[in-house]
Structure formats: C-alpha cells, structure tokens
Design goal:
There is one protein chain. The longest helix is centred in the N-terminal third of the chain and has 35 residues. About 20% of the residues lie in helices and about 35% in strands. It has two domains: about 40 residues; about 110 residues, Immunoglobulins (Immunoglobulin-like), CATH 2.60.40. Strands 2, 4, 5, 6, 8 and 9 form a six-stranded mixed sheet that branches. It is built from one helix and nine strands, in the order αβββββββββ. By secondary structure, it is α+β, with helices and mostly antiparallel strands. The site of copper (II) ion has 6 residues, from β5.
C-alpha cells in the first residue's frame, strides 16, 4: 500500500475517531445543560390555616414543592401505607406525592396527597404537636435524603 494512501486512511481514521467523541461530548453537554435548566434538589414547605385547634378538628395544609412534580402514586394504596418496606440507599424522583405525619415519621402517616392543599383531622392530646410533610416517590418510598417540612400546632 502506497504510504500516501495509508496516511490518508490514518488521517480519515483520526478524523472519524475525533468526530464521534466530539458528537458524544456535545450530546452529553446538551444533556447536562438540560439537567441544569430544570435542576436542583426537590424541596417542600408547608403552612397551616391555623396554629391551634381542638382535638378532632381539621386543619388545612398548603404544601409547596420545588423541583418536584406532585402526581398520583403509580400503584394502589397499601393497606397500612407505612414505610416499613423502605430499603437502604438513595431514593430520588422528579415527582411523586407526600405523606402527612403527626409528631413522628416513624409511625404510619395520617394521610397522603398529591394536591397543593390537604385537610387533615388531628386527634391528639392537649399540648404542642407537629404535622410533618415528607415527599415520596411514586412507589411510596420516601426520598432519601429525606425531604420534609413541618408546622407547629397546639391542641387546646
Ligand atoms: Cu405514599
């Protein structure tokens, strides 16, 4: 093979091997910028329409999320709807729903919702309490690291 032909092949080969990674890199950068545009970690905040109530009363929570789409769970509500099946490790999602707990996330939630407001009936002893909102993926696993917020309530 004439050496100039070999040189042309090598140059063509060199161009090809450069061109493909460049295109891949461009796509990777485009994906990165898209991710950056919609990016950020999910967050949640919550407010209540009252700060004190009698046991058995209903409070309306307004739940605001960022970088998280509120949507219906992908599967039917489990009987207990607890978090006992949570496995170790990171849990991420671009959307899901939230559970509402009274005082602790170690117990079964009072309710769940994927609406911006939710009515919660609080039956509790006299004194200070918290309603805790925690974000869940579509399969009901809570996000890890946890994303949660709470409001303080006094039962009078
Ligand atoms: Cu759930």
């Amino acid at each position: 093979m004439p050496s100039d032909a070999l040189a042309r092949m090598l140059r063509a080969g060199a161009r090809a091997t450069v061109r493909i990674p460049c295109r891949t890199l461009t796509l990777a950068l485009a994906a990165l910028s898209l991710a950056a545009c919609g990016g950020g970690d999910p967050s949640v905040s919550v407010t209540a329409d009252k700060s004190s109530l009698a046991s058995g009363d209903t409070v309306t929570l307004t739940v605001t999320v960022e970088n998280f789409e509120l949507r219906a769970p992908a599967q039917a509500l489990r009987a207990a709807h607890g978090d006992e099946e949570q496995t170790a490790g990171e849990v991420t999602s671009d959307g899901g729903h939230y559970h509402v707990y009274l005082d602790s996330t170690d117990v079964n939630p009072l309710t769940m919702a994927w609406t911006p407001t939710v009515n919660v009936t609080v039956t509790a002893s006299t004194g200070p309490h918290q309603l805790i909102v925690r974000l869940n993926a579509d399969d009901h696993r809570f996000l890890v690291p946890e994303v949660k917020a709470h409001v303080d309530l006094t039962v009078e």
